[in-house]
Amino acid sequence: MKREAAEKRGRHAEKTAARWLRMHGWRILAERVRTPRGEVDLIARRFGLVAFIEVKGRTKMEDLETSIDQRRLARVAAAAEILYPEYCPKGEDMRIDVILVAPRRKPIHLVNVWHGF
């Protein structure tokens, strides 16, 4: 039952993040894209820039601080490397972002969090 609740919370956080991005001029290109190296929650484009986005949702704001780590970001970056040719066919700039979502709070958008490329 806990896994089901976590899955539901994650999907809700992703929908909230996508809505927030759209309100800020981003176009959502894909959601929950899986690769052999990992998954990217959202892929979005704005002004010729493509963002590969990890979304984290927690029930308490305090828990968001520990929800993202280097290992998870490395998986997103590895997946983005595979997906880059498909979503950036003209050599567009790309970055890895994180969006943190908690109830009754505005999403927190952490920009360009991975510098491993």
UniProtKB/TrEMBL annotation:
<dbReference type="InterPro" id="IPR011335">
    <property type="entry name" value="Restrct_endonuc-II-like"/>
</dbReference>
<comment type="similarity">
    <text>Belongs to the UPF0102 family.</text>
</comment>
<protein>
    <recommendedName>
        <fullName>UPF0102 protein HF685_06530</fullName>
    </recommendedName>
</protein>
<dbReference type="InterPro" id="IPR003509">
    <property type="entry name" value="UPF0102_YraN-like"/>
</dbReference>
<dbReference type="Pfam" id="PF02021">
    <property type="entry name" value="UPF0102"/>
</dbReference>
<dbReference type="InterPro" id="IPR011856">
    <property type="entry name" value="tRNA_endonuc-like_dom_sf"/>
</dbReference>
<dbReference type="GO" id="GO:0003676">
    <property type="term" value="F:nucleic acid binding"/>
</dbReference>
